[in-house]
Known about the structure:
The chain is α+β, with helices and mostly antiparallel strands. The protein is 18% helix and 35% strand. It is globular and about 45 Å long.
Amino acid sequence: MNRIPRTTATAVAATLLGTLAACSNSVTQVAPKVVNMDASWAHYYRSMADLKAHTDVAVEGTITKATQEPGASTTSAPFTDFQFTVTADLYDPGHRAAASTSGTPVTLSIHQTGGAVNGEVYQFDDDPLFKVGERYVLFLREYAPGHYMVAGGPTGRFSVSGSGAITPIVTDGVKFTGTQTTMSQAIKTS
């Protein structure tokens, strides 16, 4: 009987395992096809004063959950509801996003047009779907008790970077660059 020396057998086994691992790592996941829709926004704000005048609440926070609306079809636009956990209340004259006395974080339900239908993701080109983990400052309108939509579509939506820098997601809406402090001041003086 021919025996393979132990060092050779170990080397062959290590090579096979390495090859199998490389093969499993090379499996790529196919991203869903993204279908960008165009919109003609009924309200599109270019100044902080106009945006504030049409806003019930402005808050900073993080998208923490997404739920596809049932019944989406290819004949109507899909919708997705997002859970938004508030970290700062920037403008809230009606005390809608006021922190609870129990210390539980305030969460708001944000309704956005777009979502997955038959393996394709539909979203507006200038107002892409929120993603869980992203931070924003959002200017919101309450359309039903506890349920909100972003005021002015993409013009009421500002990204927050890891360093805390706040910037609008569209370049032709409200002009702003700064931090939470400067955003609060801009809202206050508008």
